[in-house]
Amino acid sequence: AGEAGTAALLGVWQRIQRSPDEAYVRYAQALDRFNCNAAAQLHNATSPEQREALHRRLKGWGADLRQLAAK
């Protein structure tokens, strides 16, 4: 299930990145810009200690997700 799930997610990601719908392409590009700006604002509003704490938390969540995907 792990490899099949990964392949399915990769297929979805590729379709999102290469949509034939030009309106969707514009929407996705605007969303990317919005998310990048939000991430930059969050980064600039936090201390190095806060960013390190978030890094550790996200790293833990990533490990949890990899463990779940391997089952």
Strand content: under 5%
Q: What is the CA–CA distance across the termini? A: 7 Å
Helical residue percent?
A: over 70%
Shape: flat
Could you say which structural class the secondary elements and strand pairing correspond to? mainly alpha
| Number of DSSP E strands | 0
- The pLDDT mean sits at 91
Poorly predicted parts: none
Main sheet: strands, sense, barrel:
none
Query: Helix-strand pattern, N to C?
Result: HHH
Number of helices: 3
Give the tags.
71 residues; mainly alpha; flat
Explain how this protein is built.
The protein is an all-alpha fold and 71 residues long. The longest helix is centred in the middle third of the chain and has 23 residues, at 22-44. It is built from 3 helices and no strands. Helices cover 87% and strands 0% of the residues.
Task: Describe the structure concisely.
The protein is an all-alpha fold and 71 residues long.
